[in-house]
Amino acid sequence: MKKYFREKLHKGLTQEIEIKKLLVKKKSLFQKIEIFDSYIYGRVLALDNVVQVTEKDENAYSEMLVHPLVQLLKKKPTKVLIVGGGDGAVAKELLKYKFIKKIDLVDIDQEVVNLSKQYLIKINDNSLKNNKLNLFYEDAFNYIKNTKNKYDIIIADRPDPIGAGKSLFKKEFYKHINNIISPEGISVFQSGVPFFQKKELKTVLKDVSKYFKYSGYYLTVVPSYVGGFMALVWSSNKVDISKISISKKKYAVSTNYYNQNILVSSFIAPNFIKKL
Length: 276
What we know:
Blueprint: E1 3-7, E2 15-27, E3 32-38, E4 43-47, E5 50-54, H1 58-72, E6 79-84, H2 89-94, E7 102-106, H3 110-119, H4 121-124, E8 133-136, H5 140-146, E9 151-157, H6 171-180, E10 181-190, H7 198-209, E11 214-221, E12 229-236, H8 260-266, H9 271-274
Parallel strand pairs: 6-7, 6-9, 7-8, 9-10
Antiparallel strand pairs: 1-2, 2-3, 3-4, 4-5, 10-12, 11-12
């Protein structure tokens, strides 16, 4: 008998994925965790019945959270903070740059990290065991509020604003991010799928603009995130990255999704998003 994973993130819509083999199904202290092999996406991690990452299309997400920022910064970044990211995919992309010396990853759920080390190696390439990576298991909101560290890049690989992820969408979250970003640094925030989550993107853009001189968004397309374009909101106090001339990769790295043409086109939005 066939078994299916069903995601009901958006009202009135269900995404159904046939399960080839169920590997993990358990409750942590914070959320329901499922890891399974599928026929279409390869291995899948889902939290509270929402797809977080898949082998087949994680590059379209993790590469776009990392490479635009690193490639567009004037100076080589050396210290990076990942908010969330317990699957290790974003850390994997950052580790492609040897000049990045320190990566702090803050995830509330240690169980997600431990299971990702065991089951998601094809997704994270053992990044969660790298010596450059420092793991902190705590509420990321409290971490950014209290830390004295400064970062050149901050990546909010956060879930949707439900459950454990709600605090990462508070207005104060961006205020605290501004306090710990270096003067020339850039931050980026996962901000939903505008086709279904217009309010989320509109609210994030409004809140971020209160604390940063420059901000905006660029887009990517992740097939397992239903709804087409995914918005990644960026912010900086020093540079408007949407106006930087992009001619070629500053640093040569191997990617499966990201390239210079994708980078240029990611700042071009369809009218229904521009009107938000």
